[in-house]
TrEMBL record:
Pfam families: Neprosin_AP. Residues 91-110 are annotated as: Disordered. InterPro entries: Glutamic_endopeptidase, Neprosin_propep. The keyword rRNA-binding does not apply. The gene is LOC107800800. Residues 51-137 form the Neprosin activation peptide domain. It comes from Nicotiana tabacum. This is Neprosin activation peptide domain-containing protein. Residues 1-28 form the signal peptide. Keywords: Signal.
């Protein structure tokens, strides 16, 4: 059987079509996107007193109480800790009992936990920001609030 030039052209065309149909979209980020992620990470991750790695490979930074992310909110910028906000003795005792009964969920170093005035905060990673970006692109505008007289509900549409 003699292969003609037309047969070769048809085979080449079929291979080109098959290759074209098998191309999947690759989701990548431009240099500008990487710079934006780095800028967000610098804003979110504060300088820490101490850093630990958990057994689940999460990284926790121990921050000064007043540097925790909650105080980045404009209404809490000049927040001060008041002595009357300290927990009562009964609450401290109850918290200590519940902490000893549930040691598996403890976050902190094995030598005793956080010192006073220090708060453990999970470090935000690029993967966290990418996951958030993908979620927002999939469900953009799809979350809305449904109010009732006594409870708020949230729905995905």
């Amino acid at each position: 059987m003699k292969i003609t030039r037309m047969h070769l052209s048809v085979v080449q065309l079929l291979i080109a079509i098959m290759l074209f149909l098998n191309i999947d979209e690759v989701e990548g980020f431009s240099k500008k996107d990487h710079e934006e992620l780095e800028r967000q990470l610098k804003l979110l991750n504060k300088p820490s007193v101490k850093t630990i790695n958990t057994e689940y490979e999460d990284i926790y930074d121990f921050l000064n109480f007043y540097l925790q992310p909650a105080f980045d909110h404009p209404l809490l910028k000049n927040y001060t800790y008041h002595p009357q906000m300290k927990p009562s003795f009964a609450q401290l005792k109850r918290d200590k009992e519940s902490a000893t009964s549930n040691r598996s969920s403890k976050i902190g170093p094995r030598d005793g936990g956080c010192p006073m005035g220090i708060v453990p905060i999970r470090r935000t990673t690029k993967e966290d920001l990418n996951r958030e970006r993908r979620f927002n692109s999939i469900y953009a505008g799809g979350i809305f609030r449904v109010s009732c007289s006594f409870i708020n509900y949230f729905c995905l549409s």
